[in-house]
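Why does residue order matter? Because the sequence determines the fold. Keep that principle in mind as you read this record.
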Amino acid sequence: MAALSGLAALRAGRRLWKLPARPSAGLPGCWLRRGYIVGRAESPPTFGLLFDIDGVLVRGHRVIPAALEAFGKLINSQGQLRVPVVFVTNAGNILQHSKAQELSDLLGYKVDPDQVILSHSPMKLFAQYHNKRMLVSGQGPLVENARALGFQNVVTTDELRTAFPELDMVDLERRPKTTLRPRNDFPAIEGVLLLGEPVRWETSLQLIMDVLLSNGNPGTGQVTAPYPHLPVLASNMDLLWMAEAKMPRFGHGTFLLCLEAIYRKVTGKELKYEGLMGKPSILTYKYAEDVMRQQAERRGWSAPVRKLYAIGDNPVSDVYGANLFNQHLQMAKRGEEERETGGRQKRQPSTIQSCVSILVCTGIHNSQDPGSEGAQLLFHGHRDFSFSPELLEASHIVHDVDEAVQLVFRQEGWA
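Structure:
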């Protein structure tokens, strides 16, 4: 129902009226759409939009009405986007093309899979691990997602517990009823992929720890825990996220927090990551920039994208990430050394000069007064990201995504 109503509403919002070519009007051959004047041949856009999804465009499986209004302004009379748009979500328990189809149904226009960046999408850049045997944790189409990222040799936590059922001891109903013969035919695991929060946290936490402490051979037992441990790649650091419930829900960042605390308590050492992806990681924004540039090239837009507007509802991931990336861009302008962000593939030189953060009040941040300072924000970010209070302050706070798009158009002289 949400998809049908969204499509109908958007179609209604796309009604066009041809204006008579009156010299006094100064608008020959133009179209009027919902208060915006759009020429037949707009100049190529020099800005792009990064949309978070949950809490900005949708709440759970329901589209937020303001999203339909916003895309009514972003779509031209041919049903094409007027500016580059990339959807950057910290979700990861769905296939890229499935997320694109879900957005298409809700927003009423065709979203290409290449426009969608999931939390783990930048793992495509970590080619040095693609041929290693990796334990993958999360839910949804885990194996399909891992293979789409380039990992060809993966084993799921379910497959691991099937091979070694004696490792999963929390659930009494799943404990082995007989003594099992030890296995020595299970290939060693060479790394860990954390794609998103799993369903059975206790099982996943136990088996991941078993793999790390045994150096990839959980069936042989632990003598001395190796350190550094096997490589770990993780995506989605959100402590909380917003769905249909009135209060935020635990995200994958909460699962990571549990894993890190357990590892530190057991070994006395810190769990280390070879790569952390998803907002607020700079790597994710660099990846989004590449995706946006490819989109502009396909559309034949000749002008390079100079400014990004990142629209989100979570101060700790969306705002912090956009501001952190903007800080990175300003440092690069001054010629300061760039911090290593993982991956080994070369990128084209960046054309982006700034990234503007816009916070909406329809998700995690739900202030009744968008202009107020609000309560002091606690930093819920990941421990590997140093806390800078000023990075939590959005460049703009608006009520919803429609107001955000109107703000961008005014800033860029498109309104």
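The radius of gyration is 24 Å.
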